[in-house]
Amino acid sequence: MDSRLVLAVLLAMLSWGFLGTYGQNSTSTGAQNITNTTSGNMTSGNMTAGGNMTAGNMTAGGNMTAGDMTAGGNMTAGGHMTAGNMTAGGNMTAGGNMTAGGHMTAGGNMTTGGNMTAGNMTAGGNMTAGGNMTAGGHMTAGGNMTTGGNMTAGGHMTAGNMTAGGNMTAGGHMTAGGNMTAGNMTTGGNMTAGGNMTTGGNMTAGNMTTGNMTTGGNMTAGGNMTAGGNMTTGGNMTAGGNMTAGGNMTAGGNMTAGGNMTAGNMTTGGNMTTGGHMTTGGHMTTGGHMTTGGHMTAGGHMTTGGHMTTGGHMTTGGHMTSGGHMTAGGNMTTGGNMTAGGNMTTGGNMTAGNMTTGGNTTPTMAPFVANTTVENLTAAPSRSGCGSSRLCASEPSDCDPSTPGSCFFVSANQQNGQDFEFELSGESDGFLGTVLSLDTMLGGNDTAYICANNNGSVRFFSALLNNGMLTRTPLDVNNVRGRINGRTIQCTFSARIPSSITTRMTRTTSFSTSIITGSFNPSSGDLGAPTARVTTNIVNLANAGATVTNTGNNSTNTTASPANTAHGVTVHYSLMQSLLITLVVVGLAML
């Protein structure tokens, strides 16, 4: 063959190879390695670059490997995709694993049949992996985030719907606009879903907020736990803050909140405990103990297999049932029956249809701090609330202590159990007081509360009235306020009816109430003999609407005037004065 012909053939072959490698587009039907290549579209079997790989669309039937990998369009590999940073303006798809030592970013969807691993992972569309999805930083998808294995992010995790066949873990916040579903769900920050939150294992977060919240294991939030719908767990349910469900709240184990617990129906197989209030519009049921630092309120039935304890009021529209002790610092009230296998104890009132206990029924009272220091009374007592919120007695019957005029007035407003707030108004040059007696005869160690005119200011005393004499005695009184206007003395105070009264019979709030006046010596502090201005029938002070009758003239809702008062204390001192006058007259006659 002519040497010139051979040379021409070789030059033609070299020219064809040059055009195939460095032309505008690169296409190969066989396996080929590509190194340090920049082009428009890039298509190959295996694609490998020791440096960076940049193209319009990037497609490999096998593996795709580079330092940084950037495609203005789609990036697709039938095998594994591995790079430092991986960026695609469109979709990013790998049949095998997708791994970036740095960031992984796709303007469209990000999909791999194997594992997806990167520093930060961001997709404008959906993010899907058949295996595990792992980001050392944040994981963000504008659409849905789905993996058949575990989903893990060192930072925040954000998507539309978020679904993992395994565990879902984030060091920061976990946020889904739709539903959130996994085996175990754990985040160091907040967990928020616009739809439902469901896990077959445990659910753990700072604050937890969603529509329905369901877990087969434990549900734990360091802050608040809030569900617009139902909250259900097969294990324990625990929140450091408030626990709130618009629907039902159900736990197979214990239910615990550091704040308030609120739901439609509330049910747990273990203990139910909250540091704040426990409130349900429906039924409240627990197989263990039920404990709250605040109020416990149920629109339906309240049932526990163990003890039922609250620092405040315990109230239910249905039945209240406890297998153990039932204890409330405030009032205990139920529209149905109240039943306890142990003791039933309350610091306030106990009210029910039927009341049954296997132990003792004991209304107890919280500690009372006595303080008779008199503060200035800025607003005068009035008849406001008489007959509706407080019991009132006066002379004349229409006496209004807030308006000028000579009249006597006393009111009692129950605060809790034996604790009452009193208002007192009347005219005296010495002292004005009110007396509580178990009968209508004054003088049998009856409790008296005295407001005296101490040179133009009020001085307060508590005392016992016996045989016409007032003996000062410390009693449980506080919040004393008073003022003097001419001869008018007005004072208000809170008092706990003492055991010295109530131990003579079962604890009661029913007494005869009197208003008394007498002289007072500001220098010595001596109280003179009392004169009764008003004495009522025995009435229940806690019943604001009770009928009050003056035992002196039998008029209803009125009290006797001084001229019509016939009282043992007054008669006793009038007789002594008459005897003294008679002796003086006889002595003068003998001179």
Write a structural description.
With 591 residues, this protein is mainly β. Among the domains are: 277-364, no CATH class; 375-574, Immunoglobulin-like (Sandwich), CATH 2.60.40. It contains three helices and 68 strands. The strands form five sheets. It has a 19-stranded parallel beta sheet, with no helix packed on it. A hairpin with a 2-residue loop joins strand 59 and strand 60. The longest helix is centred in the last third of the chain and has 23 residues, at 568-590. The protein is elongated, with a radius of gyration of 43 Å. The model is unreliable at 6-33, 502-506 and 554-589 (pLDDT under 50).
| Shape type | elongated
- Secondary structure: helix percent: under 10%
Low-confidence stretches: 6-33, 502-506, 554-589
- Write down the overall mean pLDDT: 82
CATH class of the domain at 375-574: Mainly Beta
Helix-and-strand structural type: mainly beta
State the end-to-end CA separation. 185 Å
What is the CATH topology of the domain at 375-574?
Immunoglobulin-like
State which percent range the strand residues make up: 35-45%
Major beta sheet summary: 19 strands, parallel
User: Could you give the count of β-strands?
Assistant: 68
Put simply, the count of helices is: 3
CATH architecture of the domain at 375-574: Sandwich
Radius of gyration (Å): 43 Å
Write out key terms for the chains shown.
Immunoglobulin-like; 8% helix; 19-stranded parallel β-sheet; 591 residues; elongated; disordered C terminus; 68 strands; mainly beta; 3 helices
